[in-house]
Amino acid sequence: MKNIPHDYYLRFVDTSVYEDVLDFHSKGNFVFHKAFETRTGLHCLSEEYLKQLTGNELTLYPDMDLTTDLELSDEERGRWLYRNESCERFLPSSLDFSDVKKLMFPLLSRCRGTYKRGYPSGGALYPAEIFLCSLTKENSTWPGVGTILHLLPVSRKFEIMQLEVDVEKLKAALLSSPNDIGDPSLAIIYVAYMPKNLFKYRYRGYRMALMEIGSIYMLVELQAKSLGLACRLWSAYTDSMLCKVLGVNPALFFPMCVHFIGKQHEND
């Protein structure tokens, strides 16, 4: 079968395994909506404890001096591959579609005629699906205002989703958190299509999907850095709202994270 329909994989999935994974994944869903902003809370920790518990390192033997130095010369440091810091605030600007293509290039199959891509995948299942959304109305180089694109890495093409989305509704689904990060130009949405992963590795497939998406967004971060673009990973969205905008079934497609791309504000 040359082009397998996405729901074909459901024929090979253990129903009990799938229901367990869906139930576990749902436990990690948040609801971001103005109607609930004063009625819900994540924890009862004070700012003092949060400051103490975040951003630190885990020392297994804190009362023993069992360390050895890790230092590199300035010359060696210059050869590091590392991502830029997360963008605190984006400038309102459009992103040329040629740069969008370049962002996706590391994710494509290495050469035509092979399924191997620029990132590892357990059992070559590739359950991660990538959707791209322009967040600016005036982006004339994008293939249509309100058009959502789905990456086809082996075909080296974008599949045009058969729905038109109002940019403001898209922003409402993605940026409903009270955190103000400005105006990113592009949203890359990393989604795990679980039937494609669970039929072979069962519960462990969920872990492999997370590993794969982590590999993908780091490649995009490094590519964005080479293009002079700023990035910010984002999880402050509601799965069901996001799936509704994308036009996909939230029981089959699990949004794992959103990647905002754009120009960084000069004051940051």
Describe this structure in words.
The protein is an alpha+beta fold. The protein is 29% helix and 18% strand. The protein has eight helices and seven strands. The chain has helices at residues 15-27, 47-53, 74-77, 97-104, 167-174, 195-201, 204-226, 239-246, and strands at residues 90-91, 128-134, 147-152, 157-164, 186-193, 230-234, 253-264. Strands 1, 2, 3, 4, 5, 6 and 7 form a seven-stranded antiparallel β-sheet that branches. A hairpin with a 4-residue loop joins strand 3 and strand 4 (157-164). Helix 6 crosses helix 7. The mean pLDDT is 88.
Summary of the model, kept short:
This protein has 268 residues and is of the alpha+beta class. Helices cover 29% and strands 18% of the residues.
